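Colleagues,

Please find the record for the two-part complex below.
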Amino acid sequence: MTELTWPLSNLRSMAESRLVLAHSLSDARSSATSVPDPNDNENLAEQNIGRSAGLPELVAPQRHLGRWAAAVFVVLMLAWVGYSVYTNPSIDHGAISDFMFSGAILQGLKTTLILALLAGLLSIALGTVIALFRLSGNPVLTAVAQGYVWVFRGTPLLVQILILGNFSLFYPELAIVVPFTDITLVSADTNSILTMFTASVLALGLHDAAYMAEIIRSGIQSVDKGQTEASRALGLPGWVMQTRVVLPQALRVIIPPAGNNFINMLKMTSLVAVIAGGDLLTQAQNLSAANLKTIELLLVASAWYLIVVTVFSVGQMMVEKRLGRGYSRRSSRTAVSLRLRRISK
Amino acid sequence: MTAVVVAERVHKQYGTLEVLKGINLTVHKGEVVCVLGPSGSGKSTFLRCINQLEDIKSGHIFVHDELMGHKPSAGRLHRLSKRAINKQRQGIGMVFQHFNLFPHMTVLQNLMLAPVKVGKVPKEAAKSYAMQLLDNMKLADKAHSYPAQLSGGQQQRVGIARALAMKPDLMLFDEPTSALDPELVGEVLEVLRDLANAGMTMLIVTHEVAFAREVADTVVFMDQGVVVEAGDAKEVLEHPAEERTKEFLRRTLSPTASAQKRTD
């Protein structure tokens, strides 16, 4: 908090002192007879009568010819690309609209969404635990957290998906046992538990958790130490301090990269097509394997990914706006209206 | 007079650096004690030890005859549980140099959080008491503003109101005006003066020698982790017995030194 408010109030007081300085300067000027008062318009006009005779007062707004030229050029090029795709005889445009809402594609879309949401939840839960391990101050837990991030961030997601998809090859049976003994509580065939869907959720979630852990850690560390001190001085129990004071402020820092991360992961779900995860891309590829309309189905899949990502981006923007309360001296505006303003200027 | 705070032989170390070397101090009920001293003298650290924001190495701190933060067992002092320490802190209000208001909450929410969550005060009652406090601070119209929308002086007054919302009988102030622009110091000192007149027991770490002379009953001068001199405020400030106190007062009161401080 102090970091945020202090520069602001310092700047303000600096601006004020500069105003005061300007006033005292102009006072000094008006008291000296030789220097004309810049605020005395009549006097000024009299003195400059020769120079400013016939000169217009208003300054015309600047013209940005270069900007306009660049904009027109870029729009024309984009229109040309669009036209070329639209008129390409090798692309069956009817097929795109036909498959956009076909049952198999919608089923794949549903799987992709469920996959992303479940993996996202796993990633947040596991990422939080790893972040807390990392910040625990316990050297063993810290090392475990660092080791996790090292392994899961250091190997490609595609490889992790392939390993989990083929898990039954080297662990044919999964069981809950008492560690270091031969006592087995429950056991089952790996393939019956670790279906391609659960393998996909696990691979995506475990991989993403490594990134989330780092995001959450940096968010928690960004909260000023004075905040926890003030909470403790008020006698707030640790739970209240974490949920009411630390977390809301950490979230403000966590949400933008976490949203980016989630959107990235949502697109990465397409990688599970390599183990036939049943997602959007798997379905699109299954269809195109049958009807050979490869590009059309890839375009359909792309359109759906774009739509879903857009929806989540808007949601993220709204969450960020809400968490930004109290951090601006003026009433907050959304990024959209700011962007529109910049363009209209 | 009953003693509110009693400190006996308080030692504190950061690694090998000894910052408090046996502090003895008593604050009586209704007394205003100002702690003066150069930076690094350990005065803020001592204040933070009283409400257990820092743990001490040896010695005793009593608040209302209760040993703070520790219990004796097998010839040693052992740290109390967090819950027990939180309970001890409830009667002690603390005001920070950098205010430490909760930036994501409105002024009213800042004031209501601890009474509702810790004191189990009903929301309505907490709200009306918070509004009353803000009214006293002439901040009633800022109840629904966020801290970032307030001036430094207003923020510090909210900080004081937040501490008072728990109805403490002891207030600790850690350089409450050091982070303020010079023209905003007055409004905060005025609130401190009102509190002192209302009979609040106060321990104030400050650089404002003039304020200490006016409001404090007792002045404690600390340097390098020890209490160099303590006694009646006017006596210590006008006729310091120790050379180090004289030197400190000479430096803080000389016009060049204070001008330098302002531009910091």
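The mean pLDDT of chain B is 91.

Comments are welcome before we finalize the supplementary table.
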